[in-house]
Every structure is written in C-alpha cells, then in structure tokens.
Design goal:
3 domains; Rossmann fold; elongated; disordered C terminus; Phenylalanyl-tRNA Synthetase, Chain B, domain 3; alpha+beta; five-stranded antiparallel beta sheet; Uridine Diphospho-n-acetylenolpyruvylglucosamine Reductase, domain 3; six-stranded mixed beta sheet; 479 residues; 22 strands; 17 helices
Length: 479
C-alpha cells in the first residue's frame, strides 16, 4: 500500500465513521512509538483539508528511566519539527498503581486519559485521538475472552467512543511500520514491549505466535473480524434495549426507577442491558458494574420480594419496592420533614416540594355555581372540604408517627402507614407526599385520597376549596 492509499484509508475511516468534523480541535496522544507517531503524521497530512487544530500530549510514566526521558525528548523534537504544539506531563505510575491498588498498566491508562481530558477542556478541543490499531484490537478481544467476557468484550474498542477517536483501528501494525519506513520517519521502541510482565505482551509475543504456528492462521485477522461481526449484532441489541428501556423506565428524577413487572416480561439479554443503562444513568459511567452485580439485580427483580435490596460499588443501592426497581445513592434521604400552617384565604408555599397550596372559602352562590362537586375524582389536585369541621389549625406537612385517616366512603379509620402499604406506595416516596392535617387526623392525602370526616357534602354551608400546584413543572398539577 503506497502513502496515498494509506492516508486515503484513514480518511475513509474518518468520513464513514464520522470521527471528526471540519474545523475540529484535536488532542493527539503521542508516546513516541510507531503507532502514535504514524497517527500524528497522518492527521498533519490531512490537517489543511479538514482545517484541524492539533495539540499533542505526551505522558512520561517514569517507569523506564533514561529510555522514557529519551522518548520525551524525541517527541519534543518531532513536534517542533512538524510545528505542532505539545504538552508534556510526568506521572509516577508505580506510586499511582500502589495508591489505587491497580496494575501499572491500568494506572498508566487512568493517568493518560485524565490528562487528555484536562488538556481537552483547557484548549476547548472536541476530540482525543489515540493510536490503537488492528493488532491492539485483536489483543484486547483475546484478553477479554480469557477474562470470560460477554458480547461487549468481544466487540473490543470502538473507532468512536464519546470524545475518543481511533482512526487507525482497522490498520495493521505491519501497515503502520511500512508507512513510517516509506516516509523515513523514525520512532521510539519501548523495551518493555518484549517483557512478559504484562498480560497484553504475553498475548502478543507468546500466545498469538503459538496459535499461528499450531493452526496456520493469523489470530489478529480472525479476532478483528470477530469484533467487527459481533459489533453489528450488538448495535441491534442496543437499539432494542434502548426502546425497551423507554418502555419500562418510570422515573429518572431522583435516581432511576424501572418497572419490575416490565423487566420480567423481557429476555435476560435485554433486561441485563437495561440494568446497565440504569446504572450508567445514575453513575455517569459503566465502570464498576460487573456481570455478577447485574445477575444479583436481575434475581432481585425476578424474586419479587418488596423491601429487598442489593448494595453495589460507588455507594449505589438497588431496591425492589412494589414492583419498582429503584437505583439510588445509598443512604439518600427522600425529602426533609416539613410543616406549614395553612392560610385559609391565600397561598401556602411548600419550599421543600417547590409547590403551593391555595385555599379559598366558598359560601352561598359560590357553592351553587360549583355544580356537583361531590363527583370530583379522589386523585384530583383540587378538593372541597367542610370548613366548619376543619375548626382547628390545619397544616400542610409530611407524615408523622401516629397519623390516621378515615378514607372517603370508608367505614373505618386506618393508620396512614397501613393506607400507604395497601396502596403500594414505595417506602422512599412516603415522606414527600403532602398531607393536609389537623393534629394526627389527615383531611387530605394530596393526589390520592380525602377523608370521610372532612370532605364537603351537598348540604355543606361553608366550603374550603384547596388546590395543589407543583411549580417545578410549569404549574402542571402533579402530586
């Protein structure tokens, strides 16, 4: 493949996969090795055509002493010669890996991407370009297979993942080396690449050659093909899961709530994806959610035992409550206690709920003009009460121990807690439901039920009309 064909193939990747836009500002990770030097050169070659602004970033891991310092010096000279601005950083990866309790390889990756994102923000750039190639993809897929990966792991890396782009992902290491040779471009060779200390090196230097020798096939090409084919299948499953998520999600307002009933009707393949999507919504990342956690959540859903929960990493809990699977931050308080005296001729603001209760006294002709108010639905946010029976101080508040109500058209009184249980109101929602009360007697559970003791009748002489409004959604009545 000549230079023109090589660059054209990468341009096709950019255009077909929509990797970047005209006038984009690109951060380029440059280690000094063959892959990253090749990426930087190709982006420089197409810089004017796409009107790109490039900024190189080099991270010295401090693991190879003078060799690492020489790599940094080489990258600095290369960027000067090519007229590309460069930002260099030193990170003690050995110390970082001990601090985080992860491998040096993982610590290096964490440090690099943290710095890439820092430069991205500081320079107002849109994308981070990294130099993973076809061989890297094959090694990643093999490592994932050895770890017992599912479908996502078999897909390996994507050419575009958020702000990260990989224009060389379908280019072989052999093609990259040939391009650099044709252009007389030097690069650094990392001596640690021949070491068997890292699992990736063992796959590259020992496992792949053994497979090629024993079976007469190139595992890089076969594994890359596998990742490509599986990615197409995953796209379909992800789209089905996205549509199904929209069908079963009940709320994303305070955590994520899913319909457990809806989840139980779906296949495990889709349900597991929906669980991962819910985790990503509340956690802003898919990291730290393992397959064992997904299985625990699925079992929780299928066993249908209200009140049971699964504790996960990052302080997140998943609770099953009356056919609702609730993802939330552990120990989260659902609303602070509140209580406000009700002004019977004006508005009462409930700051905790960003809502208001309007009260108005009606009598004589005003009552006659209402028509048959006795038919008002119990879930309506406008209700009518007998003012003479509400002859003490009434308040709008959250629930208290000892609260009781005699529900409309009911013969007996019951504890508010028992009412909530019978109505399958989730435990975590009960503290924020507004109540209109006299002492421990509940006149109105807003949006749910009025009291037989206080509701207005056809012969009521003075009516207290109460109207509830939530301000957070533009005044729409929604308790």
């Amino acid at each position: 493949m000549d230079n023109k064909s090589f660059v054209e193939q990468i341009k096709n990747n950019i255009l077909e996969q929509n990797l970047l836009d005209q006038n984009s500002r690109i951060i380029v990770g440059v280690s000094g090795g063959a892959d990253s030097v090749c990426l930087l050169k190709v982006l420089l070659d197409i810089k004017d055509e796409f009107n790109l602004t490039l900024c190189a970033v080099h991270v010295n891991h401090g693991l190879r002493g003078c060799e690492a310092d020489n790599d940094q010096s080489y990258v600095e000279k290369l960027c000067r010669d090519w007229g590309i601005p460069l930002k260099t950083y030193f990170v003690d990866i050995k110390a970082l890996s001990k601090k985080l309790g992860i491998s040096e390889e993982e610590a290096g990756r964490e440090a690099r991407y943290k710095l890439f994102n820092k430069v991205l923000q500081n320079t107002g750039s849109q994308f981070i370009a990294v130099a993973h190639n076809r061989d890297d993809q094959a090694e990643t897929v093999m490592l994932n297979i050895l770890r017992g990966s599912g479908l996502d792991g078999l897909c390996g890396m994507s050419m575009k993942q958020g702000r990260i782009i990989r224009p060389l992902l379908n280019i072989s290491r052999k093609q990259i080396l040939k391009y650099l040779e044709n252009n007389s471009i030097h690069y650094c060779t990392d001596s640690s690449n021949v070491s068997s200390e890292y699992a990736r090196n063992r796959v590259r230097n020992e496992l792949f050659p053994a497979i090629k020798k024993m079976f007469g096939i190139n595992p890089v090409n076969q594994l890359y093909r596998l990742s490509f084919l599986v990615s197409e299948d995953r796209e379909l499953l992800d789209q089905v899961a996205k549509n199904s998520y929209e069908a079963v999600v009940l709320s994303e307002e305070d955590g994520v709530e899913l319909s457990a009933v809806g989840l139980r009707t779906l296949s495990n393949a889709i349900s597991k994806r929906i669980i991962r999507m819910a985790w990503e919504r509340i956690n802003s990342s898919r990291k730290n959610l393992e397959s064992v956690h997904v299985d625990q959540i699925l079992t929780l859903c299928q066993n249908n035992r209200t009140g049971k929960k699964v504790k996960l990493k990052n302080g997140i809990e998943v609770l099953l409550s009356y056919d609702r699977l609730i993802f939330t931050k552990a120990g989260k308080k659902y609303g602070k206690p509140y209580s406000y005296p009700v002004n019977k001729e004006s508005f009462t603001e409930v700051k905790e709920l960003n809502a208001t209760l309007e009260a108005k006294v009606l009598s004589g002709n005003e009552i006659m003009q209402l028509g048959d108010f006795s038919t008002v639905n119990e879930t309506s946010l406008v209700q009518f009460f007998d003012l003479d029976k509400l002859n003490g101080e009434i308040v709008v508040r959250s629930r208290l121990d000892g609260d009781r109500i005699r529900p409309y058209k009911s013969n007996g009184e019951k504890k508010l807690k028992k009412f909530f249980i019978d109505q399958k109101v989730p435990v975590e929602k009960r503290n924020i439901i507004p109540l209109v009360a006299l002492g421990n007697k509940i006149a109105w559970i807003v949006g749910m039920r009025t009291s037989e003791d206080y509701r207005a009748r056809k012969d009521t002489r003075k009516i207290l009309m109460l109207s509830w409004s939530n301000l957070k959604d533009g005044g729409e009545n929604n308790a």
